[in-house]
Design a protein that fits this description.
243 residues; alpha/beta; five-stranded mixed β-sheet; 8 helices; 31% helix; globular
Length: 243
């Protein structure tokens, strides 16, 4: 099985379609999406439609939960207003995790962490926090210890060895913060084990920026800076910036 694992699309349709073409070129068997279809970017409706039509497996990200109704910030309300009621419901009903056995290893796929979509694990998080990614979480219907964990959320492709177990981050398709190139993970499973790699894909960033500039989405300047530089821009309501 040749699996493409993508995440953090963030309503960036240009990057999403470029990654899809790269996935097809590589002959990957399936596409799994680890959340954050929406938020930040200008085309949430089109990206949700693409995921619903194209992906084989999808789980919920923190932005998906927020846009589906978990919070009501300006950056949640705007994409919600762009989606159909059915798409909002689709986001709100996405599962929390995927667990599958490949090559005698139990693989866990989550968005932010095994504890929840709003519980973040960074590359510099402590060893105990990294260990928890592999632990059972009965309240999340994760009942066994995982042998390998794949996650997203921090927009930074990485592989960490946690006491002999791989902790892998997919990087981000639509809002990478360790590169300006769309990034995703490839996994190839065999009986003897697995191989993995990170794909970096060039896409027309200026075309996507033009869509953002022509929209009325909030925090457009911060979004454009992130797309152009690959660096996180703090988002604060404008009426608080002068206080």
């Amino acid at each position: 099985m040749k699996l493409a694992v993508i995440a953090d699309l963030h309503a960036n349709l240009t990057a999403t379609l470029a990654v899809h073409e790269d996935i097809k070129r590589r002959g990957m068997s399936e596409i799994w999406v680890l959340g954050d279809l929406v938020g930040k970017g200008p085309r949430p409706r089109e990206v949700v439609e693409w995921v619903a039509d194209t992906a084989d497996r999808v789980i919920m990200g923190n932005w998906d939960a927020r846009v589906a109704g978990a919070s009501h910030r300006p950056q949640d309300i705007w994409p919600r207003s762009q989606l159909s009621p059915g798409q909002v419901s689709y986001l709100g009903n996405l599962p929390f995790a995927i667990e599958e056995t490949f090559g005698n290893l139990l693989w866990r796929f989550v968005h932010a962490s095994s504890k929840g979509v709003f519980h973040r694990v960074y590359p510099h998080s402590s060893l105990p926090e990294q260990r928890e990614m592999f632990y059972p979480q009965p309240e999340r219907e994760l009942t066994e210890f995982a042998d390998a964990v794949v996650y997203a959320d921090v927009h930074e492709a990485l592989l960490v060895d946690v006491e002999g177990r791989p902790l892998i981050n997919t990087g981000s398709v639509g809002n990478p913060l360790d590169s300006v190139l769309a990034t995703y993970l490839t996994l190839e499973f065999e009986r003897s084990g697995f191989t993995m790699g990170f794909a970096r894909v060039i896409y027309d960033r200026e075309a996507e920026i033009a869509f953002a500039e022509n929209s009325d989405m909030p925090f457009v300047k911060e979004y454009i800076q992130e797309i152009r530089t690959g660096r996180y821009q703090k988002r604060r309501p404008r009426n608080l910036e002068s206080t």
